[in-house]
Amino acid sequence: MSGISRIAIGQLCSSSSLNRNLETVKRLIGKAIDSDAQMIFFPEATDYISRDAAHSKKLAYGSPLFVEELRGEIRNVYEKTSKKIDVAVGVHLPPTVFEMEKGENRVKNVLLYINYKGDIVQSYQKMHLFDVDVPNGPIMLESKSVQPGHSYADIVESPAGKLGLAICYDIRFPEQSMELRSRGAEILCFPSAFTMRTGEAHWELLGKARAMDTQCFVVMPAQSGQHRVYEDEEDDEAGKRDDSQPRRSWGHSMVIDPWGRIIAQSSQGSDTELIIADLDFTILQSVRTNMPLWQQRSILNKSLQNE
């Protein structure tokens, strides 16, 4: 890639209502097109945020329709206006019939890359699941409701550059980012729903580290704010609700360049917001030329193999 590519991030605060989340996504896509963005990145779990594992498994059966309607919206925009925009969006997918027959009823946490024609050209299933007990924070066991992926996705030849796909907790595993760079990535994306405690401590630090490790642009679309996890309920009986431990996400969506500089980020305290960033590939080329880490790493690896 050369020159400058304009991208957008659609930061949002997903609820448990897939229909309302879809309407928010559509609005942000419209704004991104008006800003001349070539593609837009949405966070992990854009389709819904659930109350618990059982709730997620129930809501996931509505996700295929969410995806189909989103694909239709992207396609209609192009057919009506001739304006092109590709979309990377984090969603859940339910288990297949075959998986259910084998006793696997957990959902999949996936990142879909949808081109301007509405075609799904790439899909990545999250490999590293967030199973942790954060000190003075929540106990999170993503594996209770999510089945892990087992392979990298091929690099996407996006209009913004060569894109490597990852999701949220994957950002803590530099080996994955390094592998994506080795496969040709110029941009890495980490759609996320970071907790408040881990976000405050590590969100920006991790993004900058992965950018400098790989000499790639790093795009970090984030869920932000307190999630309304009862919006899917038709029955609004107060006695059925438990808001004693509300689900909040850190937000702070950002784009980082290969030198580790933040070149765009969301406003402080913002939930739903469109962030625009121009990726200058002369910076990427300059960083990789002036500090040839990949050539040096290759030489070192060959030396170690010969010992």
From TrEMBL:
Subcellular location: Cytoplasm
Record-linked SUPFAM superfamilies: Carbon-nitrogen hydrolase (SSF56317)
Main localization, broad class: cytoplasm
Domain CN hydrolase stretches: 5-281
Top-level taxon of the source organism: Eukaryota
Keyword terms: Cytoplasm, Hydrolase
Annotated stretches, region: Disordered: 227-252
CDD domains to which the protein is assigned, alphabetical: nit
Family note: Belongs to the carbon-nitrogen hydrolase superfamily. NIT1/NIT2 family.
Protein name: CN hydrolase domain-containing protein
Species the sequence originates in: Torulaspora delbrueckii (Yeast)
Biological classification of the source: Eukaryota, Fungi, Dikarya, Ascomycota, Saccharomycotina
Gene this chain is encoded by: TDEL0H01100
